[in-house]
Amino acid sequence: LAADDGSTRPTIFAEMTALALATDSANLGQGFPDADGPEWIRRIAAEAILQGENQYPPGRGIPALRESIAQHRLRHTGIAVDPSTEVLVTAGATEALAAALLAFTGPGDEVVTLEPFYDAYAALIAMSGATHVTVPLRHIDGAFRVDRAALADAVGDRTRVIVINTPHNPTGTVLSADELGLIADVAQRVDALVLTDEVYEHLTFDGARHHALAALPGMADRTITISSSGKTFSLTGWKIGWAVGPAPLIEAITAVKQFLTYSGGAPFQPAIARALAAGDDDILELRDSLADRRDLLVSGLRAAGFDLVVPGGTYFVCADATPFLSDAAPDGAAFARMLPGAIGVACVPISAFCRAGSETASALSSWVRFTFVKDERTLRTAIDRLSRLG
Ligand code: PMP
Ligand code: GLN
């Protein structure tokens, strides 16, 4: 990794959380819940520790968890997978992404992602030695949508992997069936693999429907679906994630994973196995409460004077800070770094999700991301402070 590509600096999330703590700010920067997931799930992990689930679990994950992941997938997408060969438990979605990119790509290959993109993608693509090519999500008619012509142009003979993310961090876009169809077409045209990062699969609002790319015709054989219990059960620190896909691809990812962490999360695996098997009550409760908190933050940001895109999913809302820019804070990055000290609110600039100097970085240079996965009091404090801007 070249030190000058930015990958060795603390992430924007760590930087903004440190700034939030130093300024006693309402931290709407880093996306993690400030209320832990269901107590009954946490008790299972606590019991597992006491009962002796403290040594290395199997490298692919404990059978009960792989079985639950397969059942959960069947229930939600209609896709049947073999838990013994087509499911791999990983240290969060992050390890699944890392192991897959290292397994499938190297120097000379191109990896296509949407832009803006979750920051880890750029760093992991750099680690693999591949070249990162991006397709803009464009801000059109109050939404962020895939630029179809740019997608067709970006994907070519050197494209080895296309990484998509739906529901999308940071924009909150839930990719439509049409957009996914287009991605499936280009992937098949050039015989590329697709990694689909679906960590927010359950966090959609207003009836927006999450579509699983792997269910599209011709995609089952070339798609690795990545998800994580962190977002679904508000247990982000447990780092229990997974990759699901065709056996030969899972085999290749496992080969890399065994030398990254080998295995992990012994007491958490049985807890997540039970959580996934338990039905959807907890998931639906989280989704409904997040929808209310999204509405609260959206109306607060609008009242403060921000233009924004109402997200169909995720933890995040993106807003244009143009009305508040000045010589001292001329863009979203400067605004985000100024805000904690000035009024006690932290957010994250969208430029952190873009390649330096890219067309998207410039189109969204005044935009910032706020998270609403915080308790109502923190959100109200932030809204009150933001109302004093301008
Ligand atoms: N992908 C996306 C789009 C994310 O937003 C995040 C983190 N919140 C991750 C992957 C990482 O997930 P995990 O914590 O399970 O590694
Ligand atoms: N995914 C979280 C976010 O987007 C942060 C995770 C991290 O700190 N790496 O805010």
Short description:
By secondary structure, the protein is an alpha/beta fold. 42% of the residues lie in helices and 17% in strands. It has 2 domains: 3-37 and 282-386, Aspartate Aminotransferase, domain 1 (Alpha-Beta Complex); 39-277, Aspartate Aminotransferase, domain 2, CATH 3.40.640.
Protein described:
The chain is an alpha/beta fold and 390 residues long. The protein has two domains: 3-37 and 282-386, Aspartate Aminotransferase, domain 1, CATH 3.90.1150; 39-277, 3-Layer(aba) Sandwich (Aspartate Aminotransferase, domain 2). It has helices spanning 12-22, 39-51, 63-77, 92-104, 119-128, 148-154, 177-190, 229-232, 247-260, 268-277, 281-304, 332-343, 359-363, 376-386; strands at 26-27, 87-91, 110-115, 131-140, 143-146, 159-165, 193-197, 223-228, 240-244, 307-309, 316-320, 345-346, 348-349, 367-371. An eight-stranded mixed sheet has the order 2-9-8-7-6-3-4-5, sandwiched between helices. Strands 10-11-14-13 form a four-stranded antiparallel sheet. Strand 10 (307-309) and strand 11 (316-320) form a beta hairpin. It is globular, with a radius of gyration of 20 Å. The mean pLDDT is 96. It binds 4'-deoxy-4'-aminopyridoxal-5'-phosphate and glutamine. Residues 31, 92-94, 118, 165, 169, 197, 199, 228, 230, 236, 239, 241 line the site of 4'-deoxy-4'-aminopyridoxal-5'-phosphate.
